[in-house]
Amino acid sequence: MAAAILGAFSLLVVFFRGLKDLFSDRVGRAIFLMVVLLILIGTIFFSIVEGWSLVDSFYFSVVTLTTVGYGDFHPETTLGKLVTTVYIFLGLSIIATFASSLAKTHAERIAAKHGSRNANDQVSDVK
After folding, report:
1. What would the DSSP string read from start to end of 26-78?
2. Domain extents in the chain
3. Does domain 17-126 have CATH number 1.10.287.70?
4. Are 111 and 118 in contact (CB under 8 A)?
5. Considering the chain, what percentage of its residues have pLDDT values greater than 90?
6. Which whole number is the average pLDDT over 21-29?
7. Model confidence over 48-61: pLDDT tens digits?
8. What is the pTM of this model?
């Protein structure tokens, strides 16, 4: 149990270090802002159109954009269904770009730590 907690904590540390590194780049900040705005817009939209609470709407937005899709919430209105379809296609590309940027900054951090190779060599080894 302690190993699982330590592992989860380590992943959080890596994630937040990646965010910190991402914020040092103008493009990284823009990508993060797009993710936040996308989730905020989805949260407000689903709250208004579907009549869900802000927490339920936020939860649905995150679960949908991360492709988890538990199915416990789903749009009931025609407008909600149509907008959700567009939201998924638009959102997935933004979330994928965000995840890719985080992975790149993590690879660059590892490459800098080991010093002898550049980040592009490190990333190409993963492919």
Report:
1. HHHHHHHHHHHHHHHHHHHHHHHHH---HHHHHHHHHHHHTT---SS----SH
2. 17-126
3. yes
4. yes
5. 47
6. 82
7. 999 999 999 999 99
8. 0.74
